[in-house]
Amino acid sequence: MASPGSGFWSFGSEDGSGDPENPGTARAWCQVAQKFTGGIGNKLCALLYGDAEKTGGSSGSESPGVAPRKAACSCDQKPCSCPGAEVNYALLHSTDLLPAGDGERATLAFLQDVMEILLQYVVKSFDRSTKVIDFHYPNELLQEYNWELADQPQNLEEILMHCQTTLKYAIKTGHPRYFNQLSTGLDMVGLAADWLTSTANTNMFTYEIAPVFVLLEYVTLKKMREIIGWPGGSGDGIFSPGGAISNMYAMLIARFKMFPEVKEKGMAAIPRLIAFTSEHSHFSLKKGAAALGIGTDSVILIKCDERGRMIPSDLERRIMEAKQKGYVPFLVSATAGTTVYGAFDPLLAVADLCKKYKIWMHVDAAWGGGLLMSQKHKWKLNGVERANSVTWNPHKMMGVPLQCSALLVREEGLMQSCNQMHASYLFQQDKHYDLSYDTGDKALQCGRHVDVFKLWLMWRAKGTIGFEAHIDKCLELAEYLYNIIKNREGYEMVFDGKPQHTNVCFWYVPPSLRNLEDNEERMSRLSKVAPVIKARMMEFGTTMVSYQPLGDKVNFFRMVISNPAATHQDIDFLIEEIERLGQDL
């Protein structure tokens, strides 16, 4: 593929001239916002500079009603800027919006009010006095609102109320005290990019309908391959709908590389294949094997050490066993950042075994790939450059809005050969531009969402150094938590030693269990503690953190940090809240 060159599209260090913390810059932004967005710009600037009433507290009782707009004025300006130019949404329907012939004014007013709802939610997401969640049981929500679809249209006033109601019960995943999943935070530039992507509303399969987005995918994937360590960023890749699909792509391509005839003749034409991954790896490897007809029994789970890292000697033993049975080992999936422990498999040792036995090496770095952006922490992925393919999810550790997952492949052209079907109505061979930019034929999907723009725009806004600071901060917060609780009364660590990632795994032991003998009864009672505390967290809406059992270990908390809005005070709050909610258990 020809390179689109450097300059505007490329990544480079930024001088910080657009820093929103700079009052002059922010004031200039407000003037622009007021010019182009009218009331929204005024209200947002009031929020920014404290001229508006502060967002309400954590009560979930605020009314979702929409203030009715007055009748419009009769001026001929487009868009109308008269103070009295307001719209009565109760009298309007979606058919009154563009492309209706006279729909411009109603459309602008409607979208401005939608934007106002969104901006209020954004501001609340960072307000620690608001709830992380306004929890209701499913039957309560089903009974409280009519969610059913009808034959007759509702008016725009009702549509705006639906927008408010939906956000009222949404989880504030950008809240500084939301720690429940690997994907947290709400980046403003990423959010803006997602809005732009939806406005453009195009498909990624050909250059002719997504020229800029296709180029941005090219330069971004190339940059990611450079960071992995492949010379000159050579290779291939694609953005896919999540890490599970990226991992399945890797299995698909690895199988095709070893047995290209499988594409036409199917699994019956080739020997039984065996894949290997750690017992702590993501379940998507088995899902991929099921979807591809390889079968879940053909995914061999390799033992891990006490920190959750794959044991290379057990991997080699299982490879040899498979070969002795006449099976064909075709893929080893090592994990860089396991979901629960945050463990990094020994990639160099795995790479040596893959080279020795001629097996495709895949690295699932969906969670840990972001550490490659950090000079301080990238050593944890030493050996990733020897992989044949890598999954990397910027929507996790790098804070890019969902979804944003990349599958990177070291060998250029292999993905295209594996997946192409030569659909002549899309991929005509006599187009007037470089056909290498028609990337759709290398994807399993036909329709493919634009996932690259939010990552690219965030990278331009933050620079690599901005991502590095984000990642280093989150890892420092994890170490802060670990140092507080490792010797604190009422806490037991699931494994010894400082965590490799931001995963901190621990039990909270309430006073009633602290002096009990370590036996089956104690474990049974301890297994009930985390679920009850989590349920209480959700009922109060104060914070959220995940829990799970693993192997012979009963339910424990798995704390993860990927939101740069979190601070030491939020970590302190979490500890105090766990103790408050669990002391009577």
UniProtKB/TrEMBL annotation:
Alphabetized PROSITE patterns for the sequence: DDC_GAD_HDC_YDC
Annotated TM spans: none
Assembly and interaction partners: Homodimer.
Originating organism: Erinaceus europaeus (Western European hedgehog)
Lineage: Eukaryota, Metazoa, Chordata, Craniata, Vertebrata
Stated name of the protein: Glutamate decarboxylase 2
Pfam families: Pyridoxal_deC
Gene Ontology molecular function terms on file: glutamate decarboxylase activity; pyridoxal phosphate binding
EC annotation from Swiss-Prot or TrEMBL: 4.1.1.15
InterPro entries: PyrdxlP-dep_de-COase, PyrdxlP-dep_Trfase, PyrdxlP-dep_Trfase_major, Pyridoxal-P_BS
Sequence segments annotated as region (Disordered): 1-25
Cellular component GO terms held in the UniProt record: cytoplasmic vesicle; cytosol; Golgi membrane; presynaptic membrane
PTM annotation (N6-(pyridoxal phosphate)lysine): residues: 396
Function: Catalyzes the production of GABA.
Gene3D superfamilies per UniProt: 3.90.1150.170, Type I PLP-dependent aspartate aminotransferase-like (Major domain)
